[in-house]
Amino acid sequence: MNILLLGYGKEGKSTESYFKSHFANSKIDILTNFTLEEIQNKDFSSYDLVFRSPSVPPLHLANETSVTKYFFDHCPCPIIGVTATKGKGTMCSLIHALLLSLGIDSRLVGNIGIPSIDVLDDLTSNSVVVYEMSSFQLWDLEKSPHIAIIGRLEADHLNVHYSFEDYLNAKSHIAAYQNADDTVIYFKNNEHSIAAAEKSAGTKIPYPLENPPEKLIDLLSKLAIPGDHNKENAEAALLAVSAYLKTPLENLIKENFSTFRKAFENFKGLPHHIEFVRELNNVKYYDDSFSASYPSLDVALKAFADKKVVLIAGGKDRGLDLKPMKDTIFGANNLVKVILIGETKSKLAKNENPEKYITADTLDEAVNLARTVAESNGDIVLLSPGAASFDMFKDFYDRGEKFQTLVKELK
After folding, report:
1. Are residues 127 and 225 in the same domain?
2. Which of 39, 38, 49 is nearest to 15 (CA)?
3. The domain containing residue 154 runs over which residues?
4. Partner residues linked to 79 by β-bridges
5. pTM for the structure as a whole
6. String of b and e for 133-149 (b: at least 16 CB within 10 Å)?
7. Contact predicate 67/115, CB 8 Å
8. 3-state DSSP call for residue 380?
9. Cys-Cys with 178: which of 70, 116, 200, 386 at CB 3.0–4.6 Å?
10. CA distance 320 to 231
11. Whether residues 28 and 129 fall in one domain
């Protein structure tokens, strides 16, 4: 078999390993460090399969595929697919935790960091795959999962997608190819989520539920991670498990309440997603370094609506309109003070009340300033930058890890 890999990230390396182990005589070529213009008119007809990496736009070749498309064509078990602009990783992890708590052979794959092709050989008809699906993985998909969740959809990745419409169209593929036996669970408070769900031929279930049963409310109160948005994520996860088991939600919770409660109490969330770091001198520190846009920052502030928050925010200046972010920060009723960092700090501070902010040149300085303010008048120190990280850090992982190290070193 003659194969070309367009890109050689985590999925590309897994694809190479898979085909070398399954097809001993495979010839695998790898193309990296290219622009879209450089490959659009190339002749790839000599290859049996051309695998595009997630960030490469579809080329619409007859022999073109992706790890996601290949997996959907060869997966022997049901797939629960989840997409959203933010929150999809948390929903997937919650579904996975609930299924495991019931003793079900669940496999968590996709955008969460595990290439689906890595688990393909381990699956049986009794397995279930929980697949976190980005717009890049959905872009040219022509099959939909048996159960789909569509969370809140907002503008994102427009540096790669041709337009917001193109982004939304890609997201909608998670439901567009469903049949009457399938199910889509969608966030009912977002017009784009509703529109994507409408493309499904299957059962459509909106969340949050209009009149949630008392047992559901009780169960959601046991969730270890903070925020109403995470209760919504947990509700969507429960609805997905209910659809998979074909059991009414109220019955499912009643029969498994203690099991699910334990799963929720033990769920620590994803790294750098409003992640609790430590408590010192009655101040709790949270790492939300994954917050790379103002909607995520808004969600994080609302998660602590009843607490006094000292916020660390700011980052890479990508030339975006910062007014919505300024409105989110300085309009938050629970904000004690914001410590502004990164390239955007001057723009965020411009024309704002100087009593509400302090600027810092380094994260170390910001953490120490935040601590001083919080210990005199605050409950929470929250790193939720609302901006990309690569002005001061390698990536958001690096930013979050440095924050956690600094916090853990406080005496």
Report:
1. yes
2. 49
3. 68-266
4. 129
5. 0.89
6. bbbbbbbbbebbbbbbb
7. yes
8. strand
9. 200
10. 30
11. no
Same domain, 179 and 233: yes
**260 with 291, same domain?**
no
pLDDT (0 to 100) of residue 9: 92
Alpha-carbon distance of 62 to 64, in angstroms, equals 6
| Cβ 52 vs Cβ 40: under 8 Å | no
Tens digit of each residue's pLDDT (9 = 90 or more) over 159-213: 677 799 999 999 999 999 999 999 999 999 999 999 999 999 999 999 999 999 9
Strand order from edge to edge, sheet including 335-340: 275-280, 283-287, 380-383, 309-313, 335-340, 357-359
Q: Is the peptide bond before 208 cis (omega within 30 degrees of 0)?
A: yes
Provide the domain count of the chain: 3
54 Cβ contact list (under 8 Å, min separation 6): 9, 11, 66, 68, 111, 134, 136, 137
Q: Which residue has the tokens 């949050």?
A: 208
CATH number reported for the structural domain that contains residue 237 in this entry? 3.40.1190.10
Which residue carries 């001061």 as its tokens?
A: 392
Confidence of residue 155 (pLDDT cuts 50, 70, 90): confident
Pairing label, strands 275-280, 283-287: antiparallel
- d(CA 380, CA 362) in angstroms, rounded, equals 20
Do 87 and 223 lie in one domain? The reply is: yes
Each residue of 119-138: pLDDT tens digit? 999 999 999 999 999 999 99
Asked if residue 339 and residue 191 are part of one domain, the reply reads no
